[in-house]
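Below is a typical protein record.
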Amino acid sequence: MIEQNAIRVPFRLMGVVNVTPDSFYDGGRHVTVDAAVAHALKLASQGADILDIGGASSRPGAVPVSPEEEIRRILPVVENVARQFSGPISVDTTWSSVAKVALDAGASWINDISAGRFDPGMVGLAAERKCMVVLMHSRGTPETMQINPHYTDVVTEVKQELLEACGKFLQGGVCRENIILDPGIGFAKNAGHNLDLIRGLDQIVELGYPVLLATSRKKFIGLITGREPQERLFGTLATLASGLIRGAGIFRVHDVEEARDFLKVFTVIEKGLPVEYFL
């Protein structure tokens, strides 16, 4: 049994396990059950606190996947990982039927990029199961979200729309302590919107919910560096530093080992901790 990292840290890492053929960075690498399970356990051994397993790509332009296909992809992976990993397993889905199957199989978090917009049944399920639920800001669908996204004040509008999503889940019976917010970097936002959101992340943190930041290898990093997804690790680490300074506490990443080492050193420096803090 791989134990959840027990080190007392001011951040947690969510490792990405995409059981998809078309995700923007690692699509097709882990489409078989054996490959996906092996990758998940590798991330766990590198220090992932949470494993986020998804069966449908949400990259810009992605074609929707049926709930039945998502279940076919992720169910055996969740079952196998749950037997070998003691930390939280998150299911990355917008369908309550998929989330229910995953929770029954050993998952304990729901990560919904639509914050309940696509399937109103997600509210009732989260309330019934008393599980953690990540509510991410987005507009439109993955197919349409990057068609001329517009905001007058992106931080204010994202903050308000996240509050509205929280209200919907709270009214539906979800405990406040079980809600995590994600500003939705790269979802219905251009590069300027993404940068403004990271700069204004402290305003999202001020809402009083844990904040998850998911920037790993995304397009805006490539626009700054001129690098393809496979070469965006260093740019990603810069965004983690900015997020940590502004109060984000959970980071969804593809590169757990590198992110953990970076954040350990950065945290010791910025928070004045002893060298041995993480040992």
The two ends are 21 Å apart (CA to CA). Residues 12-271 form a domain with the TIM Barrel fold (CATH 3.20.20.20). The first helix runs from residue 33 to 45. The chain is about 40% helix and 15% strand.
